[in-house]
Amino acid sequence: MRRLLKLAMAAALTLLPATAAFAQTEITWWDFLSGGDGVRMKALIQKFNDTHPDIKINATTLEWGVPFYTKVQTAAAVGQQPDIMTYHISRYPLAVPTGILRPFTADELSAAGIKKENYVDAAWNSATSDGKTYGIPFDVHSIILYYNKDILKQAGLLGDDGLPKGLDGLDNFNAVLGKIKALGKVQYPLSINSDQGASIWRIFYTLVAQQGAKFMDGKEIMPGDASLKALDTITNWVKTGYSPQLISYEASIALFTSGKAAMHINGVWEVPTMVDLEKKGQLGFQWGAIEIPNLMGQQATWVDSHSFAIPNSTVKPISEEKVKTVLEVIRWMNENSISWASAGHIPAYKPVTASADFKNMQPNAVYSKLADTAVYDPISPLAGVAGPIYEAAQNFIIPAINGQLDPKDAIDQMREELQSQQ
Fold first, then answer.
1. 276 and 410 inside one domain
2. Distance from C-alpha of 244 to C-alpha of 200, rounded to nearest angstrom
3. Pairing of strands 136-137, 306-309
4. How far apart (Å, rounded) are the C-alpha atoms in residues 219 and 300?
5. Residue 219: which of 420, 15, 10, 34 has the closest Cα?
6. pLDDT tens-digit profile of 98-153?
7. Is the previous residue joined to 363 through a cis bond, with omega within 30 degrees of 0?
8. Are residues 191 and 225 in the same domain?
9. How far is CA 137 from CA 92, 206, 257, in A?
10. Are residues 296 and 230 in the same domain?
11. pTM of this structure
């Protein structure tokens, strides 16, 4: 009997480690990623869960924009916030002063093996305020110039390397647009989304930054004449018929993909659209994409970043153990972000962009150098995704480029509107 009892106890003790090994730490995850981004992120989360039996990410996707950020703030106030969330870096200047983001300590980052030098400088710096790191960048996403290789070749504007030539400098670029129009092969030389403030803001801000100017200098909004020059440039493209008037986001893409526009300015997130159409044999031409040419004097491009952050709650703060697990998730996501790059994004984690897999990913590898001259939205609560600046662009810049408002009046009214909100 004693022998049987000993055997039973030994068997029970043998089972204990196995039971403990399958204990899981559950992580509540919120994101705002839909479409192709959503599909890719869900695949990454599934892969993480499959390879980490001790951790389970429970993911929820919420509505993009203001609804997401409002939900986060409300949830944190009552202690029902997620353990980890995606967050646009352009929103940090608005979020940090409100205390909604929990900063990571140097010791926490070090213990997780997360090092500043492994990340794109502009992205990491934009996630840092007063020496504190409030989030970890996941990507750099920007606007780029898509182009129809067949049309550019016919116009003598394509180099032997398959890249456009002669586009740098505004006079040269406008001459190229004129040459393409005269060729008579397309309806428009350049397609831009001319009825949506967010799309135009990205182009407008890029042209301001390329002049070495600031959109905001302290409390002063749009000092000097750089903003007017940027607006005049876009207005001229529409006025001369180089670009369509009052065209929606979807229609601006369709103009390019149908071969009715030779070039198209849009976000890197439309790269999968081109790739998919090409694979299906539905594009009808060879295409490529490069960073926005240096039109105004110095290379610069508007960018934003998806990042990972922890909501801050004084009601129910996250535990130290959960922070360690969250950082393990973040480190793994960045180390495996090559699949995220297939969505057009530039990984913020430098070892991935230095890999052979990324260098063979086209046209991503070609335009990825824009990360070195990336310009984020102004550091102001007025800026960031779905913020007051985006709304002002809709209310004033859009009417100006479509001939409904004088450009100078548009700049003056936009300045007055934003200054009243400071």
1. yes
2. 13
3. antiparallel
4. 23
5. 420
6. 999 999 999 999 999 999 999 999 999 999 999 999 999 999 999 999 999 999 99
7. yes
8. yes
9. 12, 21, 31
10. yes
11. 0.92
